[in-house]
Each structure stands twice: as structure tokens, then as C-alpha cells.
């Protein structure tokens, strides 16, 4: 049975890292006879250059029809001066929202070989395996009204709206409880319920769901403390569930626990687990085109695609084992480099993962 995968390389380092993930997928496709068929499309700045919009209707339709989407990253200085409506990032947000990809899974796992690549002490991070479940299609990212308006006195004011409905909180909450059931059965809901009503409701709904999952221990934490605890003692967490913006920020912080943002993959899923798979990092314009970007977050996102949307757990595990084998060989891109290791570029890292499969 054939499966369609839409590949959206995007901007900056996007095409470089996605090319490595494609090589890996081609090999795994042949090895496991997965019947994956790939097609490519434009998203972000690349789409603005070609069509004048960051996500055109034809690409959106292809994304909606695909079994899964693999993305690189979008954005860059070339398009930073454009108005909000046609910024590259809007293409990605429209894709997430149109396809109802509300559940964003961001696993921060420390590969033991990288214990010295983290800026944190070895004993703080070794053995780390935490999952951030970020709500992805609501919250302050999408709340209306929003904009920049001119007040009667002529001064301008920017404003956004932070809101979540009970049903939005419930569906991400259930998803997080279900994830916790399959892991360490501890769920920490992160909010700002001491200040923001929207998260008072968030906390109430999480508490209401808890009796449905009696085996899961639910705790609550304010987001400022959570940021501190992530750096102080990250292994206290099993699964974290939080809103769109808090999840965006906390997951970049969690990335550094794994050695580099170049190690953090993600899955963005709808209610049927169809989804978009992309590294958590951005288009890294500062290193684009230099063959130095770490492709492992994208390769690990491809593994998540096989696991969650294509039901190919064995193939997903094979990719994760190959990544681990390459780290065992001592190969490192610059971002995860440490003493005594062998520095390689983006392409060589991709080739090494293919060879290890
Ligand atoms: P960024 O994640 O692109 O880069 C932050 C830092 O991490 C940079 O120093 C970069 O070189 C480094 N880095 C990122 N990925 C790396 C990798 N794979 N290997 C090695 N180093 C890596 O964040 P930014 O600089 O704030 O944003 C740059 C652009 O990317 C902006 O236009 C932003 O909007 C966009 N962005 C896109 C996404 C996405 O597509 N999902 C995510 C974040 C940022
Ligand atoms: C991410 C990015 C995006 C976000 C941007 C590019 C819209 O930072 O995927 O983490 O904020 O969600
Ligand atoms: Mn982000």
C-alpha cells in the first residue's frame, strides 16, 4: 500500500537538512518496503519568492491530501521586512491551523554519547527523557482580536488575545494524559494561573480530566518556575503539557539539555495522528549554505513520522538506532562537538546515518 509524503524543505538550512532526512527515508523505504512516495513543495520564504504568498492554496491542498508532511524550517532576514500576513512563518502557522495539528510533541532525550555536549553538568542531564506536549493551534498565537492600532491621542498600541476554550484545553489535555500513560505516568501542566484567567481555566480542565487517568500523577507548575526547574533538575519531569507560547519557549530551553537545538525533533498531530514533522529549530540563517547544520533533529523527525503517522514503529526505531550508532562512532557536527570527537558536516552526517542503517 503506498503512502504519500509531502516534503517542504523551506528556507535557510531547511533544504540542507531535509536532503539528509530524505536520504535516510529512501534507504529505510527500500529496506522495509514501506511504499513511501515523496513529492516536494514550497513553504515560507521560498513560496513567497515563487508565488507571492508563504503557503499557496495548491500546496495546502496537497498537504491536506498527503499521509504525512516532512518539513525543514522557514524564515530568514530576506523576508523579515514583509508585513505579518506574508511573512514566511505565517505559512507554517496556516498549515498547522488549517490541518488542525493541535498536538505538538517535542521529545527532549539526551543521547548518552552527548552528555558532555550540553552546557549543563553531566549528572544534571544524563538519562534525560522528557516529552513536551505543546498546544499548537490556539492560545495567543491565534487569538482574535489582534493587531496594531492608533489610539485617539495618536500613539500606537500593539495587542494580542490569549484565550483557550474548554474543548481546546480538553483535547490537548487528553492527548498529554494518554502520552503519560505510555511513559512514566507523570504529567506536569504548566500555566500562569496566578495571573492569567485563561490558564485558571486551563488548570481547572486539567484537574477535571485527571480522574479519567487514575494511574497518572498530575501536578501543576507556574511557567516561570518551570523554566527554572528545567535547567536546575530537568529529570524531575516526565511529560509536560502547556499552551502554545509557553511550549515554544520551554522547548527551546529543553533543547539545550540534549546538547543542541539541532537534536530536538517534533511531531504535530491532528486527532487522527496525521501530521507534520519538523525539527524544533529554525532556518538558522547564520549557518545556512555552509554544510555545518546538524541534520539529526530532522532525521529524528522523520523517525517520528514513521512512528506516529505511518505506523512503522520498527522502521522508526531503526533510524533512532542508526543515529545512536553514528554518535557511538564519534561523529559530531559543530553544535554537538566535544573533545576527542570527529567533526563532520551536514552531508557527511546524513551519509553516516544512511550507512549505519
Ligand atoms: P534558529 O533556531 O534558526 O537559530 C538559533 C541558533 O541555533 C542559531 O545560532 C543557529 O545557527 C542555531 N541552530 C539552529 N538549528 C541548528 C542546527 N540544525 N544545527 C546547528 N545549529 C543550529 O532561531 P532564530 O535565529 O531565532 O530564527 C531564525 C529564523 O528561523 C527566523 O526567521 C525564525 O522565524 C525562523 N524559525 C523557524 C522555525 C520553524 O520553521 N519551525 C522555528 C524557529 C525559528
Ligand atoms: C517553532 C517556531 C514557530 C513557532 C515559528 C517559526 C512560527 O518557533 O516551530 O517553534 O513559534 O511555533
Ligand atoms: Mn520555536
Automatic annotation (TrEMBL):
Residues given in the record as Mg(2+) binding sites: 224, 248, 252
Catalysis: reaction(s): (2R,3S)-3-isopropylmalate + NAD(+) = 4-methyl-2-oxopentanoate + CO2 + NADH
Known cofactor(s): Mg(2+); Mn(2+)
Residue(s) at site: Important for catalysis: 141, 192
Pathways per UniProt: Amino-acid biosynthesis; L-leucine biosynthesis; L-leucine from 3-methyl-2-oxobutanoate: step 3/4
Alphabetical list of InterPro entries matching this protein: IsoCit/isopropylmalate_DH_CS, IsoPropMal-DH-like_dom, Isopropylmalate_DH
Source organism, top-level taxon: Bacteria
Gene3D superfamilies reported for this sequence: Isopropylmalate Dehydrogenase
EC number: 1.1.1.85
One GO CC term, this protein: cytosol
Cofactor note: Binds 1 Mg(2+) or Mn(2+) ion per subunit.
Residues given in the record as NAD(+) binding sites: 76-89, 282-294
Complex formation: Homodimer.
PANTHER family named in the record: 3-ISOPROPYLMALATE DEHYDROGENASE
Family annotation (NCBIfam families): leuB (TIGR00169)
Protein name: 3-isopropylmalate dehydrogenase
Species, as recorded: Simiduia aestuariiviva
UniProt lineage: Bacteria, Pseudomonadati, Pseudomonadota, Gammaproteobacteria, Cellvibrionales
Amino acid at each position: 500500500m503506498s503512502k504519500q509524503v509531502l516534503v517542504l524543505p523551506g528556507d535557510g538550512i531547511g533544504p540542507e537538512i531535509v536532503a539528509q532526512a530524505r536520504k535516510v527515508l529512501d534507504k529505510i523505504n527500500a529496506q522495509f518496503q514501506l511504499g513511501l512516495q515523496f513529492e516536494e513543495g514550497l513553504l515560507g520564504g521560498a513560496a513567497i519568492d515563487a508565488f507571492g504568498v508563504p503557503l499557496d492554496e495548491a500546496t495546502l491542498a496537497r498537504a491536506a491530501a498527503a499521509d504525512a508532511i516532512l518539513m525543514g524550517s522557514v524564515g530568514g532576514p530576506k523576508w523579515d521586512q514583509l508585513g505579518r500576513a506574508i511573512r514566511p512563518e505565517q505559512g507554517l502557522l496556516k498549515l498547522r491551523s488549517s490541518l488542525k495539528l493541535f498536538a505538538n510533541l517535542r521529545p527532549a532525550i539526551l543521547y548518552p554519547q552527548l552528555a558532555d555536549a550540553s552546557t549543563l553538568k553531566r549528572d544534571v542531564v544524563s538519562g534525560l527523557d522528557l516529552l513536551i506536549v505543546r498546544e499548537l493551534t490556539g492560545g495567543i498565537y491565534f487569538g482574535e482580536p489582534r493587531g496594531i492600532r492608533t489610539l485617539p491621542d495618536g500613539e500606537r498600541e500593539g495587542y494580542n488575545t490569549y484565550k483557550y476554550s474548554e474543548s481546546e484545553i480538553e483535547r490537548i489535555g487528553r492527548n498529554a494524559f494518554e502520552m503519560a500513560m505510555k511513559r512514566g505516568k507523570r504529567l506536569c501542566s504548566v500555566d500562569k494561573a496566578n495571573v492569567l484567567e485563561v490558564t485558571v481555566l486551563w488548570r481547572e480542565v486539567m484537574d477535571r480530566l485527571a480522574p479519567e487517568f487514575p494511574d497518572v500523577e498530575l501536578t501543576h507548575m507556574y511557567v516561570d518556575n518551570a523554566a527554572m526547574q528545567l535547567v536546575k533538575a530537568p529529570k524531575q519531569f516526565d511529560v509536560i503539557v502547556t499552551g502554545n507560547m509557553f511550549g515554544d519557549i520551554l522547548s527551546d530551553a529543553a533543547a539545550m539539555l540534549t546538547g543542541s537545538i539541532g537534536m530536538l525533533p517534533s511531531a504535530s498531530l491532528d486527532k487522527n495522528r496525521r501530521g507534520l514533522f519538523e525539527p524544533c529549530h529554525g532556518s538558522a540563517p547564520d549557518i545556512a549554505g555552509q554544510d555545518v547544520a546538524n541534520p539529526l533533529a530532522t532525521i529524528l523527525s522523520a523517525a517520528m513520522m514513521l512512528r506516529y503517522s505511518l505506523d512503522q514503529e520498527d522502521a522508526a526505531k531503526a533510524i533512532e538506532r542508526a543515529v545512536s550508532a553514528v554518535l557511538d562512532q564519534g561523529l559530531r557536527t559543530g553544535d554537538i562537538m566535544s573533545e576527542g570527537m570527529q567533526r563532520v558536516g551536514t552531508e557527511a552526517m546524513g551519509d553516516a546515518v544512511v550507512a549505519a542503517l
